[in-house]
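[Meeting: bench + compute handoff]

Bench side (C.D.) handed over the final construct sequence. Compute side (W.E.) agreed to return the predicted structure before the next meeting so the bench team could plan truncations. Sequence as handed over:
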Amino acid sequence: MKLKNKLLLLSTSLAFIFMTPVPVLAQDAQQAQALLDAVAKKVSSYDNIEIDFTWNLVNQKEQVDQKTQGNVLLSGERYRLSMMGMNRVYDGDKLYTIAPDDMEITVSDLDPDQDKSVTPSKLLTFYKQGYTYAWDIKQKVAGRNIQYVKLYPIDSEAEIKHMLLGIDTATNHIYKLIQTDAQGTQFILTVKSFTPNQNLAKDTFEVNLNKYQDQGYYINTLY
């Protein structure tokens, strides 16, 4: 897969842009809000989090079912994401997209306060602003109780119909995120493992461009 197509698919998997909400019952909304608040409180208590996940794009009408594995390490706004044979590193200042197959690194600016998409650093807290909520179904998954909350974006120009956020009620950790757009395409992220508070090396979120240049990588700067 060419770098341009990889970047497009990777960006699609991380960027969630939304459509108009529908009314929800106040009691359901309050119950959902309380659960999401508990998740946010739990997540904010960790110094860092490592997540192994699967990401699945499904469109039954077009007979598309594409699945890939991924890993992301989060610490505050900083992250290191590995997915689709590429690595994306945000050091708090610059975003580095590393494509080993193409021997190329793209360096760009990223302002987390201005970026409205669900970037990895926002993955576990993106729902705190810009949504209405509804209490949804509960499922038993491998002995765990997974409670789903339905999210309707407030943005009137959004393109996504709704999202379902599955939460493990025993740990208050996110288990699954299901995004459905107006055409019926679903983006499904399922957490396989969730490991907080690891001992990280000081350079975990650093990218040594000189090292990559010595290996023959092309450095593409977009700032």
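W.E. noted at the follow-up: Residues 3-73+118-206 form a domain with the outer membrane lipoprotein receptor (LolB), chain A fold (CATH 2.50.20.10). C.D. will use this when planning the next construct.
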